[in-house]
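Input/output pair, single chain:
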Amino acid sequence: MANILPTKSNLMASKRSRELAKTGFELMDKKRNILVREIMSLIDKAAELQSQIDSVFSEAYQALSIANITLGKCNRIAEAVEPDKSVSIRYRSVMGVEIPSISTAEPKLSLPYGFIGTNSALDEAYIKFHRVKKLILDLAETENTIYRLAYNIKKTQKRANALENIVIPNFDNTIRSISDTLEEKEREEFVRLKVLKEKTRADE
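Output:
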């Protein structure tokens, strides 16, 4: 902001720009606080989901181990399970941040194999792994949201710091410099007019 002419119009323009910068900082600060609150609630959710996944995975593998022992290897039975292609991702906006929303159109849970040559341990393993799949989708959505929010918090913080520590102080310095120069000019003009007036009186 150097080399700005010390005029009243530039002084007014600098004051308007400073107000805009101040408003921008306040908006950035508000956005940062909202995103921080959002991310803090999601961190607890992610930890809870991870705990549930660990627990259900353990139960699922235990049930699968029993099924393998009682039925032999379940690979052939597993071939009856169709790949899940129903997962879709949409996005919603939180303070300008695109947040993923993962959904699945999978029909109601039903066993994809017959009762002959299977047992309840296999049924339990299938149900548990189905539960794990849903939890993993929830965790993927939550962790991706946390990552996006954290990235935007960092970016917003950087912009807010730039406004607070660089842009606004620069405008303050410019306003102060122009104001001081204009005041000095006004004093010089006042003195000049006073001298001129006294000279005019003396000439009379």
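Strands lie at 87-94, 97-104. The radius of gyration is 35 Å.
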